[in-house]
Amino acid sequence: MQTVILTLISIFSTLGLLAQQTTLTGTITDLKKRPIAGVSVSIADSYDGASTDSIGRFAFSTTDTGKHTLLVSMLGYKSWEQPVELRGGSQSFSIQLKESPNELTAVVITAGAFEAGDTKKATVLKPLDIVTTASANADVAAAMKTLPGTQQIGESAELFVRGGEGYETRQFIDGTTVANPFFGQAPNIASRGRFSPFLFKGTVFSTGGYSALYGQALSSALILESIDLPERSEASASFSPLFVGAQYQHLAKDSLHSWGASAGYTNVGLYFKAVKQQPDYFKAPEVLNGDANFRIKTSRTGMLKFYGSYAKNILGLRNPDIDMPVLKNAFELNNSNIYTNISYKERIANRLKLQTGFSYSQNKDNIHQQVQDADNKPVQHTLPDWVAAKNFRLATNSKLMQLRAVVDYKLSGLSAVKAGAEYWYSKDENQYQQFPVAALQDHFTAAFAEADVYISNGLAARAGVRAEHSSLLQKTNVAPRASLAYKLANAAQLSADYGVFYQKPQSHYLMWHPRQNQLRADHYIVTYQKIGFNKVFRAQVFHKEYKQLTKTFPDTSSTGTGYARGAELFWRDKSTFKNFDYWFTYSYLDTKRAYLNYPYEMQPTFAATHTANLIVKRFFTKMKTQLNINYQFAAGRPYYQFKYNNGAQQWDVLDQGKTIAYNNLSFSANYLANMGKAFGVVVLSVTNVLNSKQVFGYNYNADGSNKVAVVPPANRFIFLGLFLSWGTDRTQDAINNNL
């Protein structure tokens, strides 16, 4: 009898629990009514819940009763909650979730830029990529020439981007501009950049459509962010037949501040004796440089950084005079440069950040050119006027100071508003022969604002405006910028960029005609980009409209026009082939200009219609060796001989054509070795391995009877160096970067 009673009690208890049990079912979709799988659905303060299946359905039961809250959450979507009363039976829900932008899943506003750094998703070129690119020889700008949109200009170190001249690309460090990023150079011979790639943790190379936070770059911006505190104290040294250098970086024990300094000396005289150069160098290029830095972590979110550098370089060379080949032109350059930069950033409120910067630079060039005879002596007898004019001395002294402040206010999600202002003071002084030339002085001010609005994970917009005023030009300009990015399936996105960009004319055109307009270019860009695991694909089409370019005939004015349009491809793959890293780029460019003394719209001499790059890197882990190959191609560039027609009062084109195609196969090898207590890297680099002939253009004498090709000083460049560091074994870093 007792057993029967217990059984009945158990049955009635179970029936009671079933009567109190509530079953919750439903479907979850996004705002476009597409089902979302993997959504977490639960009762607050309870263990009861479930996840949606592949078609967005969920179902679970709970024995809780009374008033509770139903919680729904999913990465990338805003959380959803609703009060429910559990009293048995079943309840059904139809729920729609709104996307919530987050850094892991949100669309990226690229604004036409290739980005690299610790926090950037579209990683393209990091410092180790730059130093291991065969043709770059550890030069930042040279490495950027492997990206689409750039031209293979062998006679200049500057970056020529999308139909723009080299001065149309500006470099920025920690927000402030760098007036002279390259060492002084002789005519038609490229120099190098002043800064080591290891100074920077982040790189943004925008080939167009860049942010309103930056200006005075008509075509392109190379935005560099310096490292914060180093990982540890370290000493290093470098040795080569070309240079010697040493560096020390000290990190305090509390890891809250650091300081460092470096020095180097370069002299290529020994190399030039071993490898014949086409110019006759009576002073082999020499560079003496040094820099210093300190960094202070002022709070959990604050950082103060200082960097200062000094460099001096000299060179002297002779070439046959183009008008009278029995004579020689001797060119001598003495250059000195000072650059300082101090920046400070801090989170001054919960959602508010402040970034400030100050930079000062001074660049001096002393140039002496002299006509000499066959014995390298100054010519004493009377020369024709056009030849005698080649005897001159020119001294230039350029100063630039910039102050800048930006505030960044975080809105909901990833949306943010940035606003700021900057002030530039510049002064250019020139002395020709012993006579001073009128100095150029400008007080340049700018204000800017920009908003990033993330409408959803898949749709974001950027709108900005920049206003600038030049006291020298007595002109004010307003430049709007806008970007729109839409996320497609499979980690792909489509974006469109528009912007108006201004830049002051070059100083030598303003010297006698300072009341010109700023140069103007309007950018239109459409980008498709897909980023996978160690793979990046990017395709762009662009159109750039030039206005207010400098014309030098019939008078110096801002009436020049032009256009540039084209298509570009970029593909990088680090995963398909084991231990291989490669990227390929292709650029098509259609551009013409009516500027300077061009009689009509013509393809400029620095523009090639087709360019391509193939970079391949193979790391041999057991051998601790990396082999790198870079092949660069560019179609022939146009060249012209202009002659003034006095009768018709116009410039005529007497001769024109295109150079041979540019081909350059470069190779480098890096061997990692532990040498006692030092970590060492042995580097061997060879450019133009196949000894391909390269012609960059032609120069003409006064009557056009003598036509001389512009060629590199030597067809091939060979470098061998040893780099040592104490305090850090970077073997694993190098391996990880290349696997």
List the helices and strands and how they pair.
Blueprint: H1 2-20, E1 22-30, E2 40-43, E3 49-51, E4 57-62, E5 66-73, E6 80-86, E7 89-97, E8 113-116, H2 127-131, H3 140-144, E9 169-173, E10 176-178, E11 200-206, E12 220-226, E13 234-239, E14 243-251, E15 257-267, H4 269-274, E16 280-296, E17 303-320, E18 328-347, E19 352-372, H5 385-388, E20 392-410, E21 416-432, E22 435-456, E23 459-470, E24 475-487, E25 492-503, H6 507-510, E26 519-532, E27 535-551, E28 557-573, E29 580-594, E30 610-620, E31 625-634, E32 638-645, E33 650-658, E34 662-675, E35 678-687, E36 697-700, E37 707-710, E38 717-726, H7 731-738
Parallel strand pairs: 1-7, 9-12
Antiparallel strand pairs: 1-4, 2-3, 2-5, 5-6, 8-11, 9-10, 11-12, 13-14, 13-38, 14-15, 15-16, 16-17, 17-18, 18-19, 19-20, 20-21, 21-22, 22-23, 23-24, 24-25, 25-26, 26-27, 27-28, 28-29, 29-30, 30-31, 31-34, 32-33, 34-35, 35-38, 36-37
Characteristic terms for this protein:
mainly beta, five-stranded mixed beta sheet, disordered N terminus, 2 domains, Immunoglobulin-like, Maltoporin, Chain A, 7 helices, 38 strands, about 750 residues, disordered C terminus
Structure description:
The protein starts with a helix and ends with a helix. The longest helix has 19 residues, at 2-20. Mean pLDDT is 88; it is low at 1-19, 116-123 and 731-739. A hairpin with a 5-residue loop joins strand 14 and strand 15 (257-267). It is 7% helix and 56% strand. It is built from seven helices and 38 strands. The protein has two domains: 22-97, Immunoglobulin-like, CATH 2.60.40; 113-738, Maltoporin, Chain A (Beta Barrel), CATH 2.40.170.20. The chain has 739 residues and is mainly beta. The chain has a 22-stranded antiparallel beta barrel. A five-stranded mixed β-sheet has the order 8-11-12-9-10, with no helix packed on it.
